Amino acid sequence: VQLQASGGGLVQSGGFLRLSCAASGSIFSITEMAWYRQRPEKQRELVASVSGGVTNYADSVKGRFTISRDSAKNTVYLQMNSLKPEDTAVYYCKIVDWYFSSTTTHWGKGTLVTVSS
To answer: Where are any strands of DSSP class E within the chain?
Structure first.
């Protein structure tokens, strides 16, 4: 399974970006798709996830970020609005694939988002 993330870049504070992550390969049934981020000198943290139609967001991004998925394309998106310098991080997508009562987690390589003040 390969996860290809795109959409990162440099944006000014208050701006927006849309991240995409497309999964390909031997995928059976994706039960969860999520975005994490790792800010400089910080641990990786959950930004947003979607599972069974239910979304979950970190408090720091609620009201600004929106996660969505296109099941037909095995793609997850993260719309990021009102970006702040503290959103600067490498963003990683993750999927959880279910197959006969077992799950496998796959990670993308990450895409860098830089928000300038």
So the answer is: 2-6, 9-12, 17-24, 30-38, 45-51, 54-57, 65-70, 75-80, 89-99, 102-107, 111-116
